[in-house]
Design a protein that fits this description.
The protein is an alpha/beta fold and about 350 residues long. The protein has 2 domains: about 240 residues, Rossmann fold, CATH 3.40.50; about 110 residues, Rossmann fold (3-Layer(aba) Sandwich). It has 12 helices and 14 strands. The strands form 3 sheets. It has a 7-stranded mixed sheet, sandwiched between helices. It is globular and about 75 Å long. The termini are far apart. About 45% of the residues are buried.
Length: about 350
Amino acid sequence: MKKVLMCGNEVLAESAIMAGCRFYAGYPITPQNEIPAYMSRRMPEVGGVFIQAESEISAVNMVFGASLTGARAMTSSSSPGISLKQEGISYLAGCELPAVIVNIMRGGPGLGNIAPSQSDYFQATRGGGHGDYRQIVLAPASLQEIVDLTTLAFDLADSYRMPVMILGDGLLGQMMEPVVLADSVERIAYSAKKDWILDGCKGRKPRIIKSLLLGNGELEQFNERLQKKYNEIKNKEVRCEILHGEDSKLMLVAYGTVSRICRKVVKTLREEGKKVGLVRPVSLWPFPEKELRALTGNVERFLTVEMSCGQMVEDVKLGIECKKPVHFYGRSGGGVPTEEEIIKEIEKIMY
């Protein structure tokens, strides 16, 4: 093992290579440009394929083609670029193809700016493209967690044959932290045989992978099967961190970069004897509904903190079935909540 100092985007790229990613297609957009830049250098070194596509649309469809052959494939972009990839992500879901999509969020709507944001939560957790599909969404809060969740993303994509999104933001992508990486890039995390890939018949019956289902009731049956798989994921793949859930009267809920700030808020207020805790969803879909609901016995109020005008707050309300008041504090357009602002909001609510 080795400890190195890297920026978040480069950590994500190297972690993908360590997880067995051997095909990457992308297109430049700030603040995720270090990912394609890093991949352009490293992929040839490990026998992989790097392509700078002519557009975001082309990139995601190249990933579609690579996934058909059984390769571990990834694309990345930032907010408006991810919007352009939505049709391709729907096609991946419709063909049950594994792929990893990285969104290093920036301010919006439209071109917005290049500052960090969390305003793509709805797009990520509701599918974003057309049709009744879902994608697993993982939200790291540190660069070391990027290492672990990137490997997990490829494993889950292969295991469930579906797209998995890693949702970060400009702060996480640009900051530098020491991380521990494996010495070798030969680790392929998921080794189960892919008996569905298109690799030439070679004496066997042809395989067909498609999302156009025109037979009477055929598409409805397919969607029912997808929903069964999604329900299985909701039961098995929820991930979250809870601080001081046993006695907190007010519970902060935050993910990604904002959760780091909220963690400091909790530490500060706990030192003053105030019973404040934190729920940090790691999987944004599936969302930790049951875990939140279990806290409603002693928690009097929830405060959701986001770099948006209020998106995850809706899932918090749904998760606790509105059994307790849910408050919201957010900054948008590149604004980052500060410790002082969050404490002031807590004081308005509780004291």
